[in-house]
Amino acid sequence: MKKSRFEKLIKEKRLFLDGGTGTMLQAMGLKAGEASELWCMTNPEKITDLHKRYYEAGANIVPSNTFGINCIKYDNYEEMIKRAVECVKTAAKEAVGGSNPEERFVAMDIGPTGMMLEPLGSLKFEEAVEIFAANVRAGVKAGADIFFIETFNDMYETKAAVLACRENSDLPIMVSNAYDERGRLMTGATPQAMAAMLEGLGVSAIGMNCSFGPDKMLETINDFTDFASVPLIFKPNAGLPKVVDGKTVFDVGPEEFSQYMVKVAEQGGTLLGGCCGTTPDHIKAMVEAVKDIPYKLPEKKNKTIIASYTHHVEIGNEPVLIGERINPTGKKKLKEALIAEDIDYILGEAVKQEENGAHVLDVNVGLPEIDEPAMMERAVREIQAVSDLPLQIDSSDSEALEKGLRIYNGKPLLNSVNAKQAVMDEVLPLAAKYGAAVIGLTIGEEGIPETAQGRIELAHKIVEEAAGYGIEKKDIIIDPLALTISSGQKGGLVALEVIKQLKKEGINTILGVSNISFGLPKRDLINQVFFANALAAGLSLAIMNPGSTPMMDTYHAFKALNCYDENCLKYIEYAEARAEVVETASVKADVKQAAEADKAALYGGADELKTSIIKGRTEHARSLAAELLSGSQANCEPLEIINSFIIPALNEVGADYEAGRIYLPQLLMSAESANAAFEKVKEKLPKSEADTDKKVIIATVKGDVHDIGKNIVKVLLESYGFDVIDLGKDTPPEVIRDEAVKSGIKLVGLSALMTTTVPAMEETIKLLHETDPEIKVMVGGAVLSPEYAERIGADAYSKDGMEAVRVAEKLI
User: Fold this and answer.
1) Backbone phi, then psi, for 641, in 5-degree steps?
2) Could you list the mean pLDDT of each consecutive 10-residue stretch along the chain, which spans 812 residues?
3) What's the domain range around 360?
4) Domain count across the chain
5) What is the CATH number of the domain that holds 584?
6) Can you tell me the distance from the alpha carbon of 528 to that of 540, in angstroms, rounded to the nearest whole number?
7) For residue 618, how far is the Cα from the chain centroid?
8) What is the CATH number of the domain that holds 697?
């Protein structure tokens, strides 16, 4: 593909972006709650002037004022985008001084929709892609040079925007996400996971913006520089916000900001700019401060990485285990579940394998009796709702592969391609489009070679062919094929020899380990020893059953013996857990244990309900609650189910979330499962017990259409038994006040994402308190802090959904 002017220039020198837009427009007269993007239509001369000031301050890349524009918000979105891009184009031509006019670029800014994608929200993935695609087409028509996807806090929505750009344009794509103080996106992704996915999708630059000031951003930079191979974007805020005379201002001035950005440049920043609170003066000071710092592009990393929506898994260091149980070959129950569309059985297998220690899950739903592409799409989506392990999308059907790859949230592992030309022509373009790592089977036009050399030659053919699609050797993983020794005794030795030779060449390998023993008795004996031999030969990944004790014994012992397990800590933990299982099994005859077993039988369904809620298995939780209430499993009273199982499950999940052991998707799926069980229980409660005095009004404030945070809070409050009146987004202060008066509710929750809408939040709080001093107002949102909340008159601040539940319970 021909390199753009931007892509050529970024290889030669550091480039600069603009600073804040919303906060600057506030200073120029934007009213509280007024949508800043409307100024492209009503005050284009002011927008153009702001862009000019940034070019004159030294910015090379200035994004259009289109962050809040899309086809679901504005019918005239195309005209608005055209006008906004024209403002930047005019500014680039008219700006005097500053950046070199030949080195100026017009970026089309793409902001998030403000909605959550399924399964956490109601927006379908393809709907999100089309929303962004409409913007992309309008941006191309308007004459943009670059697409700048910014301030997204969800990996999945980011992927939708990137695919929209790639499928509707050949312009360069820059992506900058908003990370929290833990260095993760709101839905859990790390910079490493984002880098893996975005580089695979072919974006030109990645990085971070907003959320916090340059001091905090410095703490996260190494997570990018250690993993990324593309230019890196850093656009911090000018510190923390505060309200002065009704205006939002920030506490880091141009000189202090520029000194921080010197450190950012020294640590590897290649595209530098500012976000909320930064001004042309900040950008000018930054450009001047970093001008003498030597420029260096990120080094090319030779890391093989796949990723889920929360974390990455690196392949090629210590061995990686792929759970094999979601594959109908030889599995009668799974076949029956697939034919019956019993997705809960599949989810149970996913959860079980994760608990048993798998690092990746294989997903193969290939049966002639079903619609495999449709089932693959559903299985991938639903498995990702209950497990954050990376997935291996496994099929011989290219349509099913594409369905799985497209819907997958992260960087997937594709299983598989082989050395047949027709198969490579069909599969490799899919791997390239969706940025997947690829498993290559050593099968050629004549079948599987008998010799190791023959299979190595096929491996080389796959690597060379993949390079033609831009797929690097590091993203090719070769399966030398473990043919059963029951039909050819050298099958294992040949596979081991291929592993050893490819290891020397820096090519990763994978095996379906249990294939080696097909047709033999006591297969675990053969599998265990062959697994040990393969690991010793340098096997990178093993497709195996993590529920097999002999196989897991081998794995943990190998890691301890080969210095993959520091101080043998994981081996000791595994051995102790294994001993507990054995000990438990050996005391069944004990009378006390028997009595406890009887109790477990009585309440086993309730305990299973708690586990289902924790794991986010919504339909399983719903059916278990119904069974418990009907008396088919245990005679549980409705309130007992709520107080002894549903609430403790939520508390456990909440504690894990607050400790950083799980992330927002798992939290929300658990809340949804609790709601499903709770609705069943409420059907059996007398009306006096079903009613609650835990009532709250929630809303996103006037001028702000981003209601993700508010919706998260709603789900969690309802799971804890609150009655929630949701007034939606862009809600005027008077509407919130009137609802509080009408309903008599004394607790109101307000959300805001954008700095330009915080004054509307302050106005709403003031109106509520003037109307009824007993009304308590809790606030949250990306631009807020406890101190900021106190300054605008809020009674309480919550940093996230779980804290909102705790705060609401205290205020009630």
Assistant:
1) -60, -45
2) 86 97 91 91 97 98 97 97 98 97 98 93 96 98 98 97 98 97 94 98 97 92 94 96 73 96 97 97 98 95 96 97 96 96 96 97 97 98 96 98 98 98 98 98 97 98 98 98 94 97 98 95 95 98 96 97 95 89 54 44 67 92 89 70 89 90 90 90 72 86 85 90 92 95 95 83 95 95 86 92 92 88
3) 321-410
4) 4
5) 1.10.1240.10
6) 16
7) 21
8) 3.40.50.280
